[in-house]
Amino acid sequence: MTKKNAVVDKEFCVACGACTKVCPKNAISVFCGKYAVTAENLCIGCGICEKICPAGVIDIMEARTL
Ligand code: SF4
Ligand code: SF4
User: Fold this and answer.
1) What per-residue confidence (pLDDT) applies to 56?
2) Cα(65) to centroid of ligand 1, in Å?
3) Using CA atoms, how far apart are residues 66 and 49, in angstroms rounded to an integer?
4) Is 56 in the pocket of ligand 2 (CB under 6 A)?
5) Whose CA is nearest to atom 4 of ligand 2?
6) 24: domain CATH number?
7) The domain containing residue 57 runs over which residues?
8) Above pLDDT 70, what percent of the chain?
């Protein structure tokens, strides 16, 4: 199965922090009070953050293959 990660559109994130509170893996945090970033190694792609983001800027995407 392909691993999925939450991806934040930094440009439109309002840094509200709502996603950081609901993530069961503590995989998403607000960087310098500016925008949310996902720790891809921790994120399980559950989609909870995507559903609660008030700005609708989180998408669940297939992880990049490095
Ligand atoms: S919930 Fe959405 S708008 Fe708020 S910090 Fe997270 S990604 Fe940004
Ligand atoms: S998809 Fe799930 S595990 Fe990944 S950052 Fe969002 S809430 Fe956390």
Assistant:
1) 98
2) 25
3) 24
4) no
5) 43
6) 3.30.70.20
7) 4-62
8) 94
Q: Are 27 and 60 in contact, with CB atoms under 8 Å apart? A: no
Count of the separate structural domains present in the chain: 1
Which residue reads 């709502």 in tokens?
Answer: 18
User: Looking at the CA of 11, which ligand is closest?
Assistant: 1
Q: State whether residue 54 is helix, strand or coil.
A: coil
Rounded Cα gap, residues 37 and 5, in angstroms = 11
Ligand 1 atom closest to the Cα of residue 14 is 3
Which bound ligand lies closest to the C-alpha atom of 33? 1
Q: Is 13 in the pocket of ligand 1 (CB under 6 A)?
A: yes
* Mean pLDDT of all residues in 33-37: 97
In angstroms, what CA-CA distances link 17 with 10, 13, 27, 56, 60? Answer: 13, 10, 12, 13, 18
